[in-house]
Specification:
The structure is a single chain. The protein has 105 residues and is α+β, with helices and mostly antiparallel strands. The chain has one domain. The protein is built from 5 helices and 4 strands, in the order αβαβαααββ. The chain has a 4-stranded mixed sheet. A hairpin with a 5-residue loop joins strand 3 and strand 4.
């Protein structure tokens, strides 16, 4: 996990909610929709996939996907754009597949 360093970081994170997002894989089953909705409101840790995001927002492809002329798009950035569309600001990606977002309290 990422650790805050310095007084600035500590003060900044005291004023912000934290959300950690990762994608479904063999070791990380997708989070249930109740947990996802709560985490999108309060912060926390969620595991997403395209199906659950579509369940939460049936219009998300129109809103968040950058689709090419060949109708191709990248799933993970589209899901991350969905999270950003819920008011979360992307901070960083760790060495693993975890994405950190913050939102004012």
């Amino acid at each position: 996990m990422w650790v805050c360093s310095g007084i600035f970081d500590r003060l900044w994170f005291e004023r912000a909610k934290i959300l950690i997002v990762t994608f479904e894989d063999d070791e990380n089953p997708v989070s249930d929709t109740v947990l996802i909705k709560n985490a999108l409101d309060k912060g926390g840790y969620i595991v997403l996939n395209i199906d659950v995001v579509e369940e939460l927002d049936s219009d998300f492809m129109k809103k968040y996907a950058a689709i090419g002329s060949d109708d191709r798009y990248f799933l993970n950035p589209t899901i991350l754009n969905f999270v950003g569309g819920q008011g979360w600001n992307f901070v960083q990606m760790t060495l693993g597949p975890q994405y950190f977002f913050v939102k004012d309290r």
